[in-house]
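Q: what sequence does this backbone want?
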């Protein structure tokens, strides 16, 4: 594996990279719809409840559509510990970011979360010892400057609340790195299934403490839709990271 100071002898090129970029853009689009829906729901329902319904709905959908064909294959893994850690990190991202959305304007919360590509690029150098070309550094640094412009240190938005999306961005970068490290170990569907199954189990244990019955059919429908949006977004997001080194797709998150 190339070091951080040696150019990559086999940089990704061709249709695979273009396809990966398009998949990441589509994933971000699904996540944008998910964030908007969750932001609206968070004005009425507790954050853990929204995340629980999303994870439960995604788990149920995977069982209904993939369970009959894959059976126990959905659970068969060669890296159970890493799957659980990755799922816990994803759960932390989901809860923290939704809390941030409930407390901050959606544009500002999302902009602050754009620190994740910079953090991922740094982690790919430190942890994976990968070479990062100057162009990639320029892209992520430009994103970081944009975050500073949004937050405006010393301005009204610069309050302790901004720590929440920053921490969420850090966990998101770790999640992306773990997704890359899972490449070639387990099938994508297994990784996706563990990602929602672990969160469903943990939040189900705590559900009696935060459950609130949906007040309208619209609310109930939107809560269920979050599972589909999250599932599609995570599926499209996971595949490029499994096939490419993290620093290449990072600027497109």
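A:
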């Amino acid at each position: 594996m190339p070091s951080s100071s040696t150019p990559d002898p086999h940089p990704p090129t061709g249709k695979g990279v273009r396809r990966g970029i398009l998949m990441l853009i589509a994933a971000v689009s699904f996540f944008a719809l998910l964030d908007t829906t969750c932001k609206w729901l968070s004005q009425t329902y507790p954050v853990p409840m929204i995340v629980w319904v999303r994870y439960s709905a995604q788990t149920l959908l995977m069982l209904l559509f993939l369970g009959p064909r894959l059976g126990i294959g959905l659970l068969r893994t060669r890296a159970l510990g890493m799957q659980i850690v990755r799922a816990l990190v994803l759960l932390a991202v989901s809860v923290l970011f939704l809390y941030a959305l409930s407390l901050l304007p959606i544009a500002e919360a999302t902009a602050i979360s754009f620190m994740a590509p910079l953090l991922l690029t740094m982690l790919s150098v430190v942890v994976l010892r990968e070479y990062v070309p100057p162009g990639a550094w320029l892209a992520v640094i430009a994103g970081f400057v944009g975050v500073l412009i949004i937050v405006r240190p010393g301005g009204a938005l610069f309050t302790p609340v901004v720590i929440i999306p920053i921490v969420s961005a850090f966990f998101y970068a770790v999640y992306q790195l773990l997704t890359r490290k899972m490449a070639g170990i387990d099938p994508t569907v297994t990784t996706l299934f563990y990602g929602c199954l672990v969160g469903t189990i943990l939040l189900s244990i705590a559900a009696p403490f935060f459950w609130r019955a949906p007040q309208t059919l619209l609310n109930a429908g939107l809560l269920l839709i979050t599972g589909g949006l999250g599932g599609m977004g995570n599926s499209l997001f996971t595949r490029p990271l499994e096939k490419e080194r993290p620093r290449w797709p990072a600027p497109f998150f």
